[in-house]
Batch of 3 targets.
Target 1
Amino acid sequence: MLNEREIESCYLGQFIPVHYHHNMLMDQNRMHGFKSAIDYAVKPGMKVLELGGGTGVLSWFAAAKADKVWCVEFNPDMVKEARKMLAINPNGHKVEVVHADAFEYLPPEPVDVVICEMIHVGMLREKQVEVIESFKRRYLQRFGGPLPVFLPEAVIMAVQPMQQEYDFEGFYAPIVQFQETTAIHPGVQELAPPAVYSIIDFNQPTDSCFSFNGKFVIERSGTLNSLRFVTKNILAVVAERSTTIDWLNHYMSLPLASPLKVNAGDVLQVSFQYRAGGSIPSLEASIQASVVYDAALQAPQSVPAYA
């Protein structure tokens, strides 16, 4: 019988099919960014823990330098997959794949680096924030300080008002879309620059609730019918070079139920709130957008639109 968290995990994505993890292996930006960050963060002789190991590839990157890696995975299908993959790769013997719940597992000894790539746009669906905060509390209780280095080290999240095309061969469908950050998307227009609504530093206590109530000055006239959510993961801070190793998630475009006509110079107010690990519909239901200054009328307006 599944408990409440296990039921939610199945719904929110922890038990995604194996082939989705295979697709992640084929994501070159993800793979290159994590390999570079792990190579920088993990020094020879270190002990490493990965929470939510999937195919085991990130643990394998760490095993190139680490003495020992614990790779924790809750999905039994992925446990088998990780063990199979690691067995046919050099240094795979240094990785112990542990079938356990990341919310509860602690390594048998202190570790130097913790990898936790439970990353979804906006920190939605997957439980990265909650898992890391739980780990910090339990680790300090058992081993004391200092805490290990976390990878990613930080996350920057932003939102942007957009005009999004929802025509699919004549079929109108305002759906949630995930878009590659490097591709050109015809029919998509940026109406204003993005605004940062949260910066997470995993070395500090992290609030599990995110909210935004801000204004945008519209730079291009059009129809506001979507909000783009941007998530930039700071995988590692390279202090000696004053730079970072980053990975940018796919953009997430959420449709607004009631589109708004906007003109250049208008002031748009947008607000929303949600909890880390929550569902996409929970975020959609909280979105409010309204024109609070109409540039054409040069007078305050209040025309709400709810997503």
Target 2
Amino acid sequence: MEAKREIIFDKLVYSCVFEKHRGNEEFIPEHFLGYQLSGETHAFHADGNTIIPENSIVLVRKNQLIRTIKYPSKSGKYQFLSIALDKETLRQYALENKIVVDKKYMGKPKLFFEPDDFLYNYFISLAPYINREKEATPSLSNLKIREAIELLLQCNPDFKQILFDFSEPYKMDLEEFMNQNYMFNVSVASFAKLTGRSLSGFKRDFTKTFETTPKQWLLAKRLDEAYYLIKYKKQKPTDFYLDLGFENLSHFYYTYKQKFGITTTET
């Protein structure tokens, strides 16, 4: 059965699957609060892998790339509910409550935890919207986002250093960033934003750093890694081609032969 991903109202997303499902790469533009109702999520990101177990809550930080694999529970169902904490609502909340952030968050990079009674019941209160028993007006959906902010700050006051940090992404080291994230199959525009650059600035800096275009470098980098996995790790292309950012096997086999002059079986 195909994955069900449904936008319940403006910022609330419900995901449900009944068999193991590999998600696409996603660029996370806004912080979001998620609850793993059943099953578990395996998330792959630049800092490594994170497993989100059943009945846990996760605060996912904005401006990052994530790839997920969804595993149903023993009962055969996977359910994940998330609500986006958009910048406009966070700015207004900070203004109304006179919140000023003067330092970066220095806590755990993996922000998932067991829900307290307040957070647990918060997500339970969203069930009527999932079941379509109740429709959310724009003002009501705004209130639910604000409620999530209140509960997060009540759970951990230091989260304000994450939620209300409105500084623009600074220019990251391009070489280091690309070597950590080349396997994500996202647009060049997403890479530009994540490194704190305009699209034109990203392309200019990229050419200066790597002496080639982003598209050519990404393909070469992924193929070099594929060669290593086949030659030295004895892995099959079917096991890793998606993990390296290739959309389909036929394209991978064609470009591999074109670059190395041999097929994968001849490597």
Target 3
Amino acid sequence: MKGTTEIIFDKLVYSCAFEKYRGYEEFIPEHFLGFQLSGETHAFSAGGNTVIKENSIVLVKRNQLIRTIKYPNKDGKYQFLSITLDNETLRQYAMENRIVLENKTESKHKLFFETDDFLYAYFLSLSPYINKTKETTPKLANLKIREALELILQSNPGLKNILFDFAEPYKIDLEEFMNQNYMFNVSVEAFARLTGRSVSGFKRDFAKVFHTTPKKWLKERRLDEAMYLIKQKKEKPADFYLDLGFENLSHFYYAFKQKFGITTTEI
């Protein structure tokens, strides 16, 4: 078994693995707070690469693309626990507590916390739900999310400017964004949302910029990068095809031959 992901309750997700495991590309639509119980998570995004070490707590911001590789510890176990800070709960909390945002400051795409006694104890308090020794209810799940918010703001009050910023992504430069994120194998809907557009608006603007469809452009862009990696970097397709957004190796070989008229071994 490579790895499993289990939804314990509505907003609590537990991941476990016993060997190196590559996760799928993920569109992160909402903030979440995560705790690395054991092993390491290597996360890759357009904003940079991050290693989440054992016993680290991390706040991951919404509206971004992330690819992960999960590494078990020396005892052969990987465990990661995350709780989603959903917009509905955040809005309700902001209204009840009269949250007022200050001037926004730029922040990294991931934010780490010191593993203090309060945050550590919080995640330990979730273990009965993982072990199925305690049942939860929607009301209790909501309380656990609110408890997480209290601890985050206690640890770093300035994070209210991130957590309670409900503005949708503004319309950004499409060409720059796509050239930074073409390797993520996600839906057109995700690309549209991340660039601040509706799906129809995204396709319309895409055609104006690239003079083709997103599907065709993504395929061509990934294959051009594959040619560069093989020819200039001397890399093998088996080592990078997933990193370029191809779902399987046979599909990559077929698409490569179709575009360039030669196989990768003929280069």
